Amino acid sequence: MARSYYSTVFEHDAAAVWAVARDFNGLATWWSEACSESHIEDGKAADQVGAVRSFQLGEGTIRERLLALSDLERTYSYEFVGTPPFPVTDYIATLRVTPVSDGRSFLEYSAVFESDDAARWTAFFPAEVFEPALKALASYLAR
After folding, report:
1. H or E element: which one contains 93?
2. Which residue, among 63, 113, 60, 110, has the nearest Cα to 87 in the 3D structure?
3. Which domain of life is it from (predicted)?
4. How far apart are CA 34 and CA 111, in angstroms?
5. Is residue 103 classed exposed, middle or buried when 0-12, 13-18 and 19+ CB atoms within 10 A define those classes?
6. From 18's CA, which of 2, 25, 136, 141 has a CA 20 to 30 Å away?
7. What residue spans define the domains of the chain?
């Protein structure tokens, strides 16, 4: 199994970061440069395990299912639904927000997956998905 990982520190406390990041349907709000629209299917709540978000990323539609969400641990995990937008299988991504003692936050974004070209995708997800997403989140919080 391959693993991709990206981490960064935010200048905002963990509660403030988590209040925005925990919204599984919030991508279009804080990453609007990449995600033009997002909705939760079948009338489920955005924080309900099993909820499927469908969103536009560039020219394509991506569907992801929320697998776990913990407000106590400030983390959630999700998987692709249907045909993945990338040639990977068994993809599970996790976002985690951890408080830092001086009032900042440590954010980790990771994924595990299978792929015939694991080296390519292990480098791709942090550089092309995780880092841009978290930079957009930081910019949104700085407003």
Report:
1. strand 89-99
2. 113
3. Bacteria
4. 20
5. exposed
6. 2
7. 2-141
How far apart CA 94 and CA 117 sit, in angstroms, is 21
Nearest Cα neighbor of 141 from 62, 4, 23, 7 is 23
CA dist 9 and 87 (Å) reads 30
| Residues 93 and 78: beta-carbon distance below 8 Å | yes
The whole-model pTM stands at 0.95
pLDDT tens-place string over residues 35-84: 988 999 999 999 999 999 999 887 889 999 999 999 999 999 999 999 88
Alpha-carbon distance of 134 to 128, in angstroms, equals: 11
Report the distance separating Cα 143 and Cα 134, nearest Å. Answer: 15
Q: Going by C-beta distance under 8 Å and a sequence separation of 6 or more, which residues neighbour residue 73?
A: 96
What is the share, in percent, of the chain residues with pLDDT greater than 90?
90
- The pLDDT value recorded for residue 122 is 98
